[in-house]
Amino acid sequence: CSRFANEVTARFDLTDSTRVVEIACNDGTLLNFFKQRGMRCTGVEPTRSTAAAARDLGLEVIETFLSPESASQLAADGLQADLLVANNVLAHVPDIVGFTESCRLLLATDGVASFEFPYLVDLVSKTLFDTIYHEHFSYLSFTAAEVILGTAGLTVIEVEELPTHGGSLRI
Fold it and tell me: pTM of this prediction?
């Protein structure tokens, strides 16, 4: 988490005026690294106990599932992300296009979104079938992810292969 915060802070010239929004922020571990840099941070977390843990770190947390309706309301209330992070969330959402459209609604005009997800090609080529979970709705290739994000009006500017879960992509 610290390495990611360092990398994106440098890569995108993030400053203390940056607003970071993390979707499914869990206990706030990742978001807290941005808070420590003086950035404005907001987590979106539907689970009460983990939202409470993030609040214990002094983080602002909105306790809701991200959907087109909730994203529209949050955007209308002024929530705009310079950096939006959704790590290991895409596989969990039943309406992946609606979810990515919701992320786009929360992005500032020049904002950047980062999505990390298990990479289908590694799952199959390395026979990582023990990483298949009943709560996952999808496993994505790069091509599928690029099409889904494009449908939501997002453009992929970088892709990085990661060792997480036996093989993941961050785009």
Answer: 0.94
